[in-house]
Design a protein that fits this description.
Aldolase_TIM; 10 strands; N-(5'-phosphoribosyl)anthranilate isomerase; alpha/beta; aromatic amino acid biosynthesis; phosphoribosylanthranilate isomerase activity; 214 residues
């Protein structure tokens, strides 16, 4: 099996960003969504993105963003990929791709049952990567980043038609098990390396990367 890809998401300080890069993250994620405790305003995002070395991919995370917001993020942060974490339809991804052809598109798909995994199929032709995340409660203000996990065995027999990743409830203690069960090529963590919502911990980042890569 090739080296696992690791995305540390919701980074908001130079110290935690540097820790993610130092300990082997292949991707770093910046959330631009005002309701999130991990929200990073455009000017700060630009500053953080400038610290990221070329071999690490910069991923912007948005929820139902319009073209103007996407344009601003792409220009200011020089993003490599855009993670769509709302209820964007395949047609919306196609429209974004047409306007921003150089930008990789990731689509987060909320999962609770096997049917949710099957529902990702329409995105296969328009997304560069499908990210399976735990479905949040209907009343929740956030579409992710709540520390929830789903039944990983639902992905045990998954045969992807393209790149994909696993998110939702991952932490240093369970990521190795999650990789073993799902054989996910990419793992994505946010709340699992925090001391409180929005505050990442450099030691937890180091422990997560070590566990995922071991």
């Amino acid at each position: 099996m090739s080296r696992i890809a690791i995305k540390i998401c919701g980074l908001s300080t130079p110290e935690t960003l540097d820790a993610a890069v130092k300990h082997g993250a292949s991707h770093v994620g910046f959330v631009h969504f005002a309701k999130s405790p991990r929200h990073v305003a455009a000017e700060r995002l630009t500053q953080l993105a400038a610290r990221v070395p070329d071999h690490v991919m910069k991923v912007g995370v948005v929820v139902n963003a319009d073209d103007a917001a996407i344009e601003m993020l792409v220009q200011s942060a020089r993003l490599d990929a855009l993670q769509l974490h709302g209820d964007e339809a395949p047609a919306r991804l196609a429209a974004i791709r047409a306007r921003f052809p150089a930008l990789k598109l990731w689509k987060a798909v909320p999962v609770k049952t096997a049917a949710d995994i099957a529902a990702a199929a329409p995105y296969a032709d328009v997304a560069d990567l499908i990210l399976f995340d735990a479905k949040t409660p209907d009343h929740a203000d956030l579409p992710g980043g709540m520390g929830l996990r789903f039944d990983w065995t639902l992905l045990a027999e998954y045969r992807a038609s393209g790149p994909w990743g696993l998110s939702g409830g991952l932490d240093p203690a369970n990521v190795a098990e999650a990789i073993r069960i799902t054989r996910a090529p990419l793992v994505d963590v946010s709340s699992g390396v925090e001391v409180k919502p929005g505050m990442k911990d450099v030691d937890k980042i180091a422990a997560f990367c070590k566990a995922a890569l071991s």
